[in-house]
Amino acid sequence: MSIVSEKMYQLGSKRSEIRELFEYGKKRIAEVGKENVYDFSLGNPSVPAPDCVRETLSDLISGDPVSLHGYTSAQGDAGVRAACADYINKTHGTGVTANDFYMTCGAAASLTISLNALAGEGDEVIVLAPYFPEYKVFITQAGMKCVEVKCREEDFQIDFAALSAALNAHTKAIIINSPNNPSGAVFSPATIEALAALLRDAEAKYGRPIFIIADEPYRELVYDAETVVPFIPNYYDNTLVCYSFSKSLSLPGERIGYILVPPKAAEHDAVYFAVCGAGRALGFVCAPSLFQKMVPACLGMTSDISVYKQNRDLLCEALTAYGYKVVRPDGAFYLFVKALEPDARAFGERAKAHDLLVVPSDSFGFPGYVRISYCVSTDMIRRSLPAFEALAKEYLG
Ligand code: PLP
């Protein structure tokens, strides 16, 4: 008998497919040189944090180190939470307060805390495929069942008939992620209105709240003036917003984000205290103090995302011209491309022969595709295009 938890051993001893590919890329770089490997595996922002980050950190560091580096309140510094509330109220016309926020170590912590806060015996959480693979880990760790509902293949928008069929008396929540990793799809205000109406009907039918958990690390990463990312609490009361500064400010290694429990959420105070309790039980109290204190000066700022737009346009146009089927993404920094054979892993292996590292879609719950992360240098994309073309020719002639 093992002395460790079998479940945790399984999670820890196997790298994710994405990490595996990234490690393979490092090995190939050592063999054939950096210029000859086209690594599209990771979602690590490729543009530097905006100046406000460096300026604010340098001001903070010249202040009193004892208070700067000390513990904050478990749920986060009160002044930081008040600044977040002001910003959300100004941006989205809401009436939230500091006491609706819980500062976290990024979206991953926001999600695990929210899920643990809501988890009840027999509860189910719906995820829309394709989805961020860690959702499954987070949901099952919280003791709930992960129910997958596939999006429409033509545009990766919600398939409302399929979603409606998945809702039942056990549904506790649905995670939505817009702009989406891995498809880049953004749900419009009309889509969110339709989702809210469907969920309200289900709440009435089953006599209990169903939460939207809005996973929003890519909220600001949209590239066209007409793309609107609706603020979900303005459409649906029972929402938990899981926000992160990882992608908007290019700070994924610093682990900073928040959970917002909007005042109109059902049993608001109970949900907020359960969030505090889950943060405590999971050991996530007091998000990194220095980065919490950076937040007020950087709310609403982003890195220079014009680079991602340029990358998206370059890749979409080139890949389409070579014969790949590409749904143009409205946001985030991923392209979800149909593999040129049914088995995405086999296709990924053939791509590797061209030193193109793309992630097979099986772990995103949507087989037959590959994810291309375009948060890389534009120069690398330009150099990779002949390899994409040669790969397409192997299949399409
Ligand atoms: N949710 C999605 C959809 C993501 O893509 C990621 C990271 O890539 C996360 C959550 C985790 O974000 P964080 O680094 O803020 O924990």
What would the keywords be for this entry?
397 residues; alpha/beta; Aspartate Aminotransferase, domain 1; Aspartate Aminotransferase, domain 2; 2 domains; seven-stranded mixed β-sheet; three-stranded antiparallel β-sheet; 14 helices; 12 strands; binds pyridoxal-5'-phosphate
The proportion of strand residues reads 5-15%
Assembly state here? single chain
Q: Would you report the number of β strands?
A: 12
What fold name goes in the CATH topology slot of the largest domain? Aspartate Aminotransferase, domain 2
The strand line-up of the biggest sheet is 2-8-7-6-5-3-4
Q: What is the average per-residue confidence, as pLDDT, rounded to a whole number?
A: 97
Write out the CATH superfamily name of the largest domain. Type I PLP-dependent aspartate aminotransferase-like (Major domain)
What are the distinct ligands in this entry?
Answer: pyridoxal-5'-phosphate
Q: Any idea what the CATH architecture of the largest domain is? A: 3-Layer(aba) Sandwich
Q: Give the helices and strands as they follow along the chain.
A: HHEHHHEHEHEHEHEEEHHHEHEEEH
Count of folded domains: 2
Report the C-alpha radius of gyration, rounded. 21 Å
Give the N-to-C terminal Cα separation: 55 Å
The helicity comes to 40-55%
Count of helices? 14
